[in-house]
């Protein structure tokens, strides 16, 4: 295993934390890469392996079979494409990509190069989320016309100076920016805080879409589908000299060709609620609820729909690496989960309804919205 990004999240993954117990059979870390040379060296010493400041050097190592990356959203695209081209299987943190165009390119590369892919939407590997979706899929609450998804509000900003200064000597800031627009370095810009800056991420909306929107799609059997109409509003605020511009509050409505509506809001209770003609099911981390309550004692029969079962997210990935079977959260599924967030963000930016052609992945008769599906890369970055 090669590790790309030696920060907080990969530190959790390496020891099985973050919603997971340590896997019964793990992989050996044989190379690490991080733009902070001091941190990369510390990981290299800890695991007794080579360390690099450029992930491409790690991908050149023949002993690396799989890579696990946990990088900012704007740095998902190129490392993923390059890893697939290098013949590595990939465990990638959610969300899949910074925008819809980059997500499509990742999916195509995974398919073209025959790679095994697992997205870090680990809620799928927890029994109560699967059970909730099985209740919905098997018609226990009747016909579902409305799904409510609650994602966090606010921007959880870590304190730091927003004044431009020279980057630390052990941090390759230009490489960190990568294909994103050039901006002067300041301590508050990087690492945790990238989430609240639209040049690099989409705030709580894109950060959490790969969790609760993903579960909503799983329950509604639209894992490889997307809305046909999206509209909503966001609260757009800028604080700390305008550095943090991701919307702290947002709400948008999605209509699906499959005949239901999904409402995504920072005001809804966190999780996914399925409202059916004969009851409802609500599921979130550590909790499942339903009406009538007797649903919670239901047994999914042998001839009913049973969803993909995984008891450990990384363990599922490693098993699929061995068997070459599809993981519980492959790239296409992750692409369509975060696609909802990207489309919601576009509609809220446009402040009007956006119509979407799911099969072609394009906005219908809307060149202005279409331009927001991708962005140009900063030179010299290119694919």
Provide keyphrases for this structure.
single chain, 383 residues, alpha/beta, globular
Write up this protein:
By secondary structure, the protein is an alpha/beta fold. The protein is 30% helix and 18% strand. It contains 11 helices and 15 strands. The protein has a 9-stranded mixed β-sheet with strand order 13-12-11-7-10-9-8-14-15. A 6-stranded parallel β-sheet has the order 3-2-1-4-5-6, sandwiched between helices. β14 and β15 form a beta hairpin. α5 runs antiparallel to α10, α6 crosses α8 and α8 crosses α10. It starts with a strand and ends in a 13-residue tail after the last helix.
Shape label: globular
Q: How would you spell out the order of helices and strands?
A: EHEHEHEHEHEHEHHEEEEEEHHEEH
Largest sheet: 9 strands, mixed
- Counting DSSP E segments of at least 2 residues, the number of strands comes to 15
CA gyration radius, whole angstroms = 21 Å
Task: Give the termini distance in whole angstroms.
Answer: 24 Å
């Amino acid at each position: 295993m090669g590790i790309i990004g030696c920060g907080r999240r990969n530190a959790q993954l390496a020891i099985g934390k973050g919603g997971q117990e340590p896997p019964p059979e793990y992989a050996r870390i044989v190379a690490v890469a991080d733009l902070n040379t001091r941190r990369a060296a510390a990981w290299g010493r800890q695991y007794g392996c080579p360390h690099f400041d450029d992930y491409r050097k790690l991908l050149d190592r023949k002993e690396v079979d799989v890579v696990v990356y946990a990088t900012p959203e704007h740095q998902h695209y190129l490392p993923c494409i390059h890893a697939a081209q290098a013949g590595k299987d990939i465990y990638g943190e959610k969300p899949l990509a910074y925008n819809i165009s980059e997500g499509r390119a990742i999916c195509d590369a995974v398919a073209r190069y025959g790679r095994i892919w697992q997205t870090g939407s680990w809620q799928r590997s927890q029994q109560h989320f699967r059970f909730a979706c099985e209740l919905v899929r098997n018609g226990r609450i009747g016909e579902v016309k409305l799904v409510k998804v609650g994602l966090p509000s606010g921007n959880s900003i870590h304190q730091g100076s927003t004044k431009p200064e020279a980057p630390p000597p052990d941090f390759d800031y230009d490489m960190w920016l990568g294909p994103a627009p050039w901006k002067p370095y300041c301590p508050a810009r990087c690492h945790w805080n990238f989430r609240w800056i639209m040049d690099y991420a989409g705030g709580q909306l894109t950060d959490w879409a790969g969790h609760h929107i993903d579960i909503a799609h799983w329950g509604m059997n639209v894992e490889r589908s997307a809305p046909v109409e999206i509209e909503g509003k966001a609260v757009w605020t800028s604080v700390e000299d305008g550095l943090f511009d991701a919307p702290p509050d947002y709400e948008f409505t999605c209509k699906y060709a499959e005949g239901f509506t999904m409402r995504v809001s920072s005001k809804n209770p966190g999780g996914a609620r399925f409202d059916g003609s004969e009851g409802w099911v609500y599921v979130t981390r550590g909790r499942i609820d339903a009406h009538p309550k007797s649903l919670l004692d239901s047994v999914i029969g042998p001839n009913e729909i049973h969803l993909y079962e995984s008891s450990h997210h990384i363990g599922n990935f490693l098993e699929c690496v061995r068997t070459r079977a599809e993981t519980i959260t492959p790239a296409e599924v992750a692409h369509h989960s975060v696609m909802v967030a990207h489309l919601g963000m576009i509609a809220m930016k446009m402040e009007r309804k956006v119509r979407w052609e799911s099969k072609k992945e394009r906005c219908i008769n809307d060149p202005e919205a279409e331009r927001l599906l991708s962005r140009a890369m900063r030179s010299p970055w290119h694919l």
